[in-house]
Amino acid sequence: MNFTKAAEDLAVTQSGISRQISNLESLLGAKLFERVGSRLVLTEVAKSYLNEITSGLNQIEQASVNCVRGQSLEAALMICAHPTLASRWLTPRLQDFLKDRPETILDFVTTAKDINFTETRIDAAILRGRGTWTATRSQELFREELVVVGAPHVVDTLPSEDVLDFDNIATLQNASRPDLWLTWLRGAGLQHRGAIRGPRFPHSELLISAAKSGLGLAVVPLLYVETELQNKELALAFGGPVPTADSYWLVQPEQRAEIPAAHQFSLWIKDQARQFRRDVSHMRSTNL
User: What is the CATH number of the domain that holds 113?
Assistant: First the structure.
């Protein structure tokens, strides 16, 4: 809705954009834009025209992408996961999957919401829950386990008391999962007093960064911080992992589960999950 910005985007002059619009209006015999004060707005005819041609333009764009890729996007393997799970656990392992399958085109998407698997082209998703997705094949990969972590210098200075006094402990909170501290406390069975306050962060990635910076203690799923614990960028506080009622699942729509690439991914991710369970068991035996 701005000729000047459109010109910048297309690397042409503003007058060039104006001529193109004028030519299009002459071709169509209809006015597409009008000014309301200082604003440029679409006419009703233009709104209808835009709505009708958008799908066609998208098809042209997709056909061009497929031409460049040498393969239709419909042939790509579409994988879905929560953003933090994807960045911290799944994508670091994907090189192992792709190195033996150079012909595979991977289309990666993330979600923080529930998925309607009857209305999507997703081939496989890694989701946290209890295995209750409809019209899918759901296979449990591993249980979710929570840990309390902080920068080593923060953990080293924690008071040694039988009862956790949150009035004297710097805590961090996850706005996307506000119940994490209470879930961990129930699972750990520790006595506590005081209010759990402290800065709130919108998602786990920022929460972990804040914990590493020494702002306070955070409750996070263990699989998100395995690297930081091994590198000693973070340390455990108040004991080892506490399981929750949720697990991480491989979820596949029934109608796509037997597609060869999806089946190969299913076998691979289950092997990765087995290796992760072994790694966690080893970490636990060596006190993480």
Answer: 3.40.190.10
Token pair recorded at residue 281? 């068991």
Q: Render pLDDT for 93-124 as a digit per residue (tens, 0 to 9).
A: 999 898 888 888 888 888 867 788 877 789 99
**Which structural domain range is residue 114 located in?**
73-143+247-280
| CA–CA distance, 257 with 147 (Å, rounded to integer) | 33
Tokens read off for 106: 């991977």
Query: Using an 8 Å Cβ cutoff, are 121 and 253 in contact?
Result: no
| pLDDT at site 171 | 95
Task: Specify if 33 maps to a domain.
Answer: yes
Do residues 28 and 65 touch, judged by C-beta distance below 8 A?
no
Distance between CA atoms of 216 and 194, rounded to whole angstroms? 16
Q: How far apart are CA 242 and CA 143, in angstroms?
A: 10
Q: How many CB atoms lie within 10 A of CB 245?
A: 10
Same domain, 214 and 273: no
pTM of the model: 0.72
Helix (H, G, I), strand (E, B) or coil at 60: helix
Q: Are 16 and 9 in contact (CB under 8 A)?
A: no
